[in-house]
Amino acid sequence: MRRLSPALGSISSEQLRWGTPAPPSAPPGTHAGVRAVPPRRGAPAMGKGSAEEAYFQRGSLIWFTVIALSLGYYTWVVFWPQSIPYQSLGPLGPFTQYLVDHHQTLMHNGYWLAWLIHVGESLYAMVLCKYKGITNGWARLLWFIQTFLFGIASLSILIAYRPKHKKKT
Predict the structure, then answer these.
(1) Are 55 and 158 in contact, with CB atoms under 8 Å apart?
(2) 56 within some domain
(3) Where are the alpha helices (DSSP H) in the chain?
(4) Same domain, yes or no: 73 and 112
(5) Are residues 82 and 135 in the same domain?
(6) Which of 71, 101, 110, 166 is deepest in the core (most CB within 10 A)?
(7) Residue pLDDT, tens place only, 43-73
(8) Whole-prediction pTM
C-alpha cells in the first residue's frame, strides 16, 4: 500500500477522511486536523492490494454537469415538447423545434437508444472491474451507477486505470 506522506506513517488512503494532507509537523494519524478513522470492528484487515480491489474515481464535475444538462434537456424535448420556450433558447430553440416538428419518432427512438448504450457501458464497466481486479462490491456498484448515468465520461476513467500487478516470482 502506498504511503501518503512520511508524517502519516502507514495510514492507508482508505482510512483517511477527505481533506488536504496534514503538514509534516502534524502528529501521525492526522489528516488536515481530522483523525484517521480506524477500521470497523469485525472488518477484515486491509491487506496488500486492497486499494486496487476497491478502486473508484469520480469523474470530472464539468463533464458530468454537461452530460446531466444534455440528457435532462433531451428528456424534456422528448416527453414535454409543448412546454419548451423555443424563442427563449437562442439558436438552440429553432433547431429543437425543427427536430420536434419533423423528427419526433427519431428523437424518441434516439433517447431510448442513448439509455440502452449507457446500460451496455455499465455492463462493460463490470467486466472491466473484474478484469482489473476491482472486487470490492461498493466500488463495483459505484462504477456501475456512475457509468450508467454518465456513460463514456465514467467508462474512460476505468479504461485508463492501470492496476499494479503483483510480480510473479
Answers:
(1) no
(2) no
(3) 50-53, 61-79, 92-102, 104-131, 137-150, 152-160
(4) yes
(5) yes
(6) 71
(7) 343 444 567 788 999 999 999 999 999 999 9
(8) 0.65
